[in-house]
């Protein structure tokens, strides 16, 4: 895809260790037996995905807004799950984003197609796979979150193992709570927060950039034409980990994404145990 199809947007209104095995177990933020019937009826978290780049001059403002939402600065009554994908198409512009990946560029391109957009740009936010806005448009983003359709979250528990210092094995056992007709994937994202980068070149030269909820790995737990609720699902994913991996700064997100539309039908977050 040519560079002319990329844009870096400012705010405007939007259109729409050792070889020993370490093992630990964690449960998600709201375990199955802790959710009331009323909470299940209202639905679970809203997934907010940010497409960003350290090479984009206006992305730092969006990253700050993203972090503020994660801290709860806006007192939203709607629970949110945040994931930031750093794309790689600004890497030619004098600074290579250390968290950038062509995989995330492809994911954004899929959203461009499913949302019938004309171009790819940063910073962009996609909410529940259904609507989008410019990532530093605070009013538009808050509106998209609070008006989003919510779905019952999956009910998974996770077991983590470090079979080698370079790997993390995640085993998930649980079930969905909502019926979903049509093909869908249960996806698992591994993210990291508290990242700080001294940007030495490019449009953000000499700035200290802070990034939270940065997706480092993404895998598919399972896929199917129909994923019925309450049916037991078990699967294991192996993630390679990076130099300086610190489990205390990391978590995983489990979310259900429909084929074709890329709409998200339920999600949950699981914090990794410290000292994993």
Automatic annotation (TrEMBL):
Q: Which Pfam families match?
A: DUF1223
* SUPFAM superfamilies reported for this sequence: Thioredoxin-like
Read off the InterPro entries from this record: DUF1223, Thioredoxin-like_sf
PANTHER family according to UniProt: LIPOPROTEIN LIPID ATTACHMENT SITE-LIKE PROTEIN, PUTATIVE (DUF1223)-RELATED (PTHR36057:SF1), PTHR36057
Q: What is this protein called?
A: Thioredoxin-like fold domain-containing protein
According to its UniProt entry, this protein's organism is Lactuca virosa
């Amino acid at each position: 895809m040519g560079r002319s199809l990329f844009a870096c947007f400012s705010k405007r209104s939007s259109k729409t260790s050792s070889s020993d095995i370490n093992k630990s177990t964690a449960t998600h933020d709201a375990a199955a037996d802790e959710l009331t019937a009323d909470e299940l009826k209202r639905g679970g978290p809203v997934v907010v995905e940010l497409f960003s780049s350290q090479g984009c001059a206006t992305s730092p403002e969006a990253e700050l807004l993203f972090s503020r939402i994660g801290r709860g600065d806006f007192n939203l009554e709607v629970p949110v799950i945040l994931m930031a994908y750093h794309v790689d198409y600004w890497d030619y512009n004098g600074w290579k984003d250390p968290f950038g990946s062509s995989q995330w560029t492809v994911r954004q391109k899929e959203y461009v197609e499913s949302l019938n957009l004309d171009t790819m740009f940063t910073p962009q936010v996609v909410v529940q796979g259904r609507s989008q806005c410019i990532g530093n448009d605070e009013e538009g983003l808050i509106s998209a979150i609070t008006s989003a359709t919510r779905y019952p979250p999956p009910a998974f528990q996770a077991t983590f193992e470090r079979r080698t210092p370079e790997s993390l094995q995640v085993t998930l056992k649980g079930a969905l709570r909502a019926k979903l007709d049509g093909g869908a994937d249960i996806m698992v994202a591994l993210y990291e927060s508290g990242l700080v980068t001294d940007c030495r070149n490019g449009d953000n030269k000499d700035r200290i950039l802070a990034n939270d909820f940065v997706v480092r790995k993404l895998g598919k737990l399972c896929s199917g034409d129909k994923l019925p609720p309450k049916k037991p699902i078990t699967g294991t994913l192996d993630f390679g980990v990076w130099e300086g991996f610190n489990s205390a700064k990391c978590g995983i997100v489990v979310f259900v994404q429909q084929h074709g539309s890329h709409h998200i039908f339920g999600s949950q977050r699981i914090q990794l145990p410290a000292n994993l």
